Every structure is written in C-alpha cells, then in structure tokens.
Amino acid sequence: MKKEIKLRNIIFPIWMLWMLPPVWLVVIPANIIIDYLVLNGTLEYLKVENKKQILHGVLAKTVIFGFLADIIASIPPILLNIVFSPEYNTELGKWWQKNIVPMNYRPYESIIAVIILLICVALGGFLIYFFNKKFIYKDMDLTKCEKYILARNMALITAPYLFLVPTAWFVK
For a surface tag, which of 33, 36, 129, 130 has the fewest beta carbons within 10 Å of its beta carbon? Predict the structure, then answer.
C-alpha cells in the first residue's frame, strides 16, 4: 500500500523566510529582552508582590502586540513611498524626491521626513500604550494607576525609535 503524503504546510516555511529575513533572529530576542526589562523594572518600582506571575502571564502578549503596533506605525511611510509616490519628472515629483524620499535612507536630510517619522514613532508609542492598557493589562490584579504606569512606561520606552535611524548606515 502506498503511503499518503500530505503537504499542508509546505508553503508556510517559504513564506516565513520571505517575510522574516535573518534580521528577525536578532530583533525578536532583543524585543523580548527589552520588554521583559521594562515590565520587570516597572513592576519592581511599583513594588508588586506577584511580579513573576504577572511577567509570565503578559510578556508574550506584550511582545506580540508591540510588534503589531510597530507594523501599524510603519504603514504611513510605506504608503508614502509605494502608493502615493508621484512621477519624479514632475514638479511634485521633484519636491517629493527632496522632502519625502529621504525618509527611506537619510531622514535627517529633510525636516519633513523627520516630522513624518516622529509622527510614526508617536503613533507606535500610542498603540503600544493602547494595546497594553485595553487588552493586555485589563484583567491583571493591579490598580488602575499601576496599569497606567505600566502601559505608559512600555509606550515611552519601547516606542519604535529605530524608525529614526538612517538605514543608509547599513546599506553599502
């Protein structure tokens, strides 16, 4: 009798390799460590007794929702570069090339690019705060004030500040 072969998940690894390049091997552990340190430090500051239990219950969700916030905050620059990018030989295109395109590699060449990226960092921070306060920390055994402090610290410290790092530093 011939053995039946099922290839249900054969596309998943290929898709993951395309969507998650090797840089994610550094980014994911770094985010876990940073989120852990901020959560642990804030809970220590608040003198929460069941700190280990809380950390164990929310760390994974905090990391996942942090990535979701970063992804959402990266949508405006992607849209500005792909969807709304005008032809470069027009007046608008020349202005776009001078003021918006630097956002990709050298944002500090254009104040407009910096402002757009700062708005995206603020959006990412706000989303981190919102997701943590409304979804992750809502059922925790903490006071309203402690939840606010925890969500605020996560938002302020883990906002996607790397948006402001010129990628030209890493591209030859």
Answer: 33
